[in-house]
Amino acid sequence: MFQKAIARLLAKTAVKTVSAHCDGPCGVYDPASARIAAEAALSMTKKIMALDPTGIADSNTLSRFISIKEEQAHLAKTELLVLWTDYFKPEHLDQYPDLHDKFWKAAKLCSAVKQEVNEEAANNLMAAIEDIHNIFWATKGRDVTYYVAT
Prior knowledge:
Layout: H1 2-12, H2 32-50, H3 58-87, H4 90-95, H5 99-115, H6 119-139
């Protein structure tokens, strides 16, 4: 009896087909979250390099900085991959044929920043994210300034 009632209810309910450009609603994507995470990883890289490697008191601080650096580099990678796979569509590739290469290299930089204590890689990641930021906002027809906190 319950199944018949549900079936009758569903039969009376009109279902519309909808479509969307992105997996999420417009306005949910923004490369700023990747920039913030990458900037935190860069900051931790600089702090690690500034520590005295012979200082016993710095052992705990070092492990905390490493943990934060790796976590933030992974977060930057996640944010970039979501932006790459969920926001950008074939029409964007027509405008930016090297888009896949830019994201692939940025993701590889996230891995390098995570694995190493390498300020150059961290700075290169920031530059890659700036490039992606500029492309992202250009696809929306907007000129949004790229800025960093430090």
